[in-house]
Amino acid sequence: GFRLNLQNQLLTREVCDGKLIFAPAELEHGDQVLESGTGTGIWLLSLAETIPPTISFTGIDIHTRLFPQEFPSNVSFIQRSITNLPAEWTERFKIVNQCLLIGGLTRKEWKKAIQEIHRVLVPGGWLQCIEPNIPLKTDIGPHTERMFAAVRDLLAKNGLVHDIVEVLGRKLSKTGFTNVQTHTVSLSAHRHEEEFNHRTLMEWFFLALKPGILAQKLLQSEEEFGELMQSMLKEWDESPQVAWSWSVVYAQKRENNVGTAKFCIYM
Fold first, then answer.
1. In the predicted model, what is the mean pLDDT of the chain?
2. What are phi and psi of 178, to 5 degrees?
3. Are 57 and 50 in contact (CB under 8 A)?
4. Cβ–Cβ < 8 Å for 145, 137
5. Are 18 and 48 contacting, i.e. CB atoms less than 8 angstroms apart?
6. Is 68:1 a contact under the CB 8 Å cutoff?
7. How far is CA 255 from the centre of its chain?
8. Average pLDDT rounded to a whole number, residues 206-233
9. Beta strand pairing status for 75-79 and 93-99?
10. pTM to 2 decimal places
11. How many CB atoms lie within 10 A of CB 60?
C-alpha cells in the first residue's frame, strides 16, 4: 500500500501537473466521483480533503485488502470490477478516475470497461486515465531492449495491451466520447537525490512483472532476471537521454442537448 501511495503522488505531481483532476471538469454540490482500481484509495481520499463534503466518492477494486480502514462518511469502498457495474449506477458520476490498469485489463475487458464508464457518467461527465507508454524500440542499449521485449511479450501472452494509450484514444471515440485528449510527459529515469523518484518507480514496475516473466519462461531464472536488471540500469546510468513517458488520457461524455431539444419539440 505504501508503494502505491508514493506511485500515485509521483504521477499526480509529474504527469498531471500536481492536479488530482486533470480533465477540465467542475464539481458542484451533490456530484459523485468514481475511482476504478482504487487500491488504497489515496487519490479519492486526497481529493475528498480538498472538496466540500456534499460531494460523494466511490472507490472500486476487485481486491479489498488495500482498502483503508477509516475514511470520511462521504467516501465508500466497494469490491467490484469496472467491467460490470451496478445497473442503478447509470448516469451517476461526474468524474471517473483510473490509474495504471495496463496490467489489469485484457483487450476485451478494456472495451467493456469503457462502455461501462460511458454508461455510468452523467452527460457532460469526464473520464481520466493515467497509463505508461511501453516503447516498441528503446535506443538505450541491448539489455534495456531485451527487458522491454520481455514486458511486451508478457502483456501479449496475457491478452493485455502494451500500447494502451493509443488504443484508449481510439476506443473512447468509438464508444461515443467527445473531446478526447492525451497529455504526455517524458520523465527522466536517472538517479536522483530524492528517496523516491521516477527511476524507483520504473525499477518497481519491472520487479512487479518478474514473477510473470519467469512463469512464462521469457527469462529462465531469478539470476538471469537479476543480471539483466542490473545491466539495464547500468545502461540507463550511461545514457544521457534515458526517459520514459506517461500519459493522462481524458474524454467527455456528450451532453444531452439533442435529447433536450426533442423533448421541447414534443411538449
1. 92
2. -125, 175
3. no
4. yes
5. no
6. no
7. 25
8. 95
9. unpaired
10. 0.91
11. 17
126 Cβ neighbours under 8 A, 6+ residues apart? 23, 24, 25, 94, 95, 96, 250, 251, 252, 253
State the pLDDT at residue 260.
38
Q: What is the pLDDT of residue 96?
A: 98
Q: Tens of pLDDT along 102-143?
A: 989 999 999 999 999 999 999 999 999 999 999 888 889 999
Over the stretch 9-22, which tens digit does the pLDDT of each residue have? 999 999 999 999 99
Torsion of Cα atoms, 174 then 155 then 201 then 67, to 10°: 70
CB atoms near residue 82 (< 10 Å): 25
The Cα–Cα gap between 12 and 244 comes to 16
3-class secondary structure, 106: strand
Residue 265 has pLDDT above 50, yes or no: no
Cα–Cα dist 23/95, whole Å: 9
Q: Residue 71, Cα to own-chain centre: how many angstroms?
A: 22
